[in-house]
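Supplementary Methods. Inverse-folding protocol.

Structures were first reduced to a discrete structure-token string of length 298. This string, shown here, constituted the complete conditioning input.
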């Protein structure tokens, strides 16, 4: 049996990279007949480096291989995992609202060989309700991380499992020594980098630079267009003392240690907030999507 792992987004996202390590171990434990795990990823060199650097967190690394696409005619026993703890939502425009996945991986859906690991967004359009009805009818299992998503899936299928975010299992295993240093961290993304957000960042910076010694910007994701870095470079023009924390050369332990030692955060990303809540770090947030607001207020 071969299991293919497909991400929703094609960029280097720290939380998804942690999740990948645990998912590999989860598969080797729960699918003992698996012979090969094939990770679908366009930047194979980066992923090999990441897994090699953190392979102490996974089982049987020798069964892992890499490809840039899933075969259109898989073997009957092969499985497909579509994951990343993103949110299936109609807030995104086609084709990024999942219709494309339904057609791209049609042979797997037809044989009910697909497992989702997702959050599920509210139904705001008739087309979304129709999509959910089709998707969940042809999926073998849906694994969600919170009760809100589970309740929605239950309207269409019973094959839903509630599980906390898998990345937490890795985070717990890392267990950095918790201590506080005199710095704060912020991050943003290109979807909300408007004048309103810039003003909020400036206010945050001016408030905390007088309280702590340093302010850092973290590039959480590494898009091909380096959008996080573009934001950082623009912020440097108005906030000259802001520093960059480059996570690309560091291990999970080093990254989690740096994050957990911060005295305060300003965050725009769901996965950052998950980590901050885990470490009980005070933060401010950009509540620009339902999924973020839902997490901030729970």
């Amino acid at each position: 049996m071969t299991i293919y792992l497909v991400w929703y987004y094609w960029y280097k996202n720290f939380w998804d990279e942690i999740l990948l390590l645990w998912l590999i171990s989860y598969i080797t434990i729960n699918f003992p007949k698996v012979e090969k795990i094939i990770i679908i990823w366009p930047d194979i060199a980066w992923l090999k480096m990441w897994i090699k650097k953190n392979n102490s967190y996974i089982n049987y690394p020798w069964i892992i291989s890499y490809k840039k696409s899933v075969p259109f005619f898989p073997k009957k026993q092969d499985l497909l995992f579509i994951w990343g703890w993103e949110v299936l939502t109609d807030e995104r425009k086609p084709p990024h609202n999942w219709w494309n996945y339904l057609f791209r991986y049609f042979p797997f859906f037809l044989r009910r060989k697909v497992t989702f690991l997702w959050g599920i967004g509210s139904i705001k359009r008739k087309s979304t309700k129709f999509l959910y009805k089709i998707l969940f009818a042809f999926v073998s299992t849906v694994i969600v991380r919170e009760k809100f998503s589970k309740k929605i899936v239950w309207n269409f299928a019973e094959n839903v499992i509630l599980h906390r975010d898998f990345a937490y299992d890795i985070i717990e295993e890392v267990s950095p020594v918790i201590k506080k240093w005199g710095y704060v961290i912020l991050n943003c993304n290109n979807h909300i980098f408007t004048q309103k957000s810039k003003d909020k960042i400036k206010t945050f910076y001016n408030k905390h630079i007088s309280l702590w010694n340093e302010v850092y910007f973290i590039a959480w994701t590494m898009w091909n267009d380096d959008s996080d870095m573009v934001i950082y470079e623009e912020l440097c023009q108005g906030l000259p003392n802001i520093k960059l924390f480059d996570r690309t050369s560091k291990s999970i332990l080093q990254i989690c240690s740096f994050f957990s030692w911060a005295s305060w955060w300003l965050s725009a990303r769901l996965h950052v907030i998950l980590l901050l809540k885990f470490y009980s770090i005070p933060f401010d947030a950009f509540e620009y999507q339902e999924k973020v607001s839902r997490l901030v207020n729970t």
